[in-house]
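Narrative of activities, Objective 1.

The group set out to show that a structural description can be obtained from nothing but a protein's sequence at a throughput compatible with the screening campaign. Below is one input-output pair from the validation batch, recorded exactly as produced.
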Amino acid sequence: MPPSDQLVALESLDPKEESAVLVPLTHHQCYYLSDGDLYIVAPSDNTIFCIHAHFLQQHSAWMQTQPHLAGREEGNPLVLCEGITANDFASVLWVFYDETLERQVSGEEWLGILLAAEKMQMPRVQLLACCKLKELTVAADPLVKIAVQQRYSIRPQWALDAYLEVCTRPKPLTLDEGLMIGMPGTIMIAEIREQMARVSVGGILAEEPATLVQRVISQNSPPESDPPVPTVLGESETFECVVGGANVVVHVGHISAAFSIYLSDTRSDKR
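Output recorded for this entry:
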C-alpha cells in the first residue's frame, strides 16, 4: 500500500460521489517534480502531477477559475477538467518543459496538444500548436481534422484527405457532425457531395473525386490567415508566433489576468 499521503478520497475529487473510497495515486514518471508547488490529478488514470504553478497561472484561463488554495497539498489536488487524460496533460506540459527548446514532435502529437489546450483554455499554446500543425502532415479522424482546419483558418489543402474521406463516404453528415465542423465546412461538404452526384454518369464520376474536392474547397475557402488572436484582459506584451519552416519562436510577456480566445472567423476585442 502507498503511504497515506499518497491516498486521496474520491469524494474530494468528485462531489457527486456519495461515499469516500481511497484509491492509490501514481506519481507521473516525468512531471512529478521535487520542487513543484502545484498538485494536479488526472482521475481517469489515477495519476498525480506535481508541477510549477507559474505555467498554468500564466497561460490557462481554466486555472483562473479554480479555488485559490486547491492543489497546494498532495492530499487536496486540483482535478483536471473533464476529458483530459494524464497523457493529454503531459503533452501540454512538455511544451513548457521541453529541455531541447526545439519543440519537435509529430503532427499527430501537436494535434493532441492543440485539443488539450482548447479544453484547458490555453490560447497561447493553441496558437503555437496551430502554427506547428500548418507545416506538418497529420493523420487523424477526418471530422476532427476538418473542424480544426475551419476553426483556426488553416489552408484547406491541409485537410484535403479528410474532406475527400468525408465527401466520398456513403452516409451524409449527421447533425452532431455538422455542429462539430461548423456551418461553413458543412455547407462546403454538402456542395461537394451534390456536385459528385451531378457529374456522375452511369454511376461513374466524370471527374476524379480528389480533383473535384480540391477544386471546390479552393473556390469556397478564403485565403489562409493567421489564427484568431487571443484576447488578454489586463496588461501584457505582444505575443508573436513566427513561422520559419516548422520552427516557431514565441515571445510571451507577463500576464496579469485571465484571458480567453474566440475560435471564429471574426475577431472580437472585449476588455
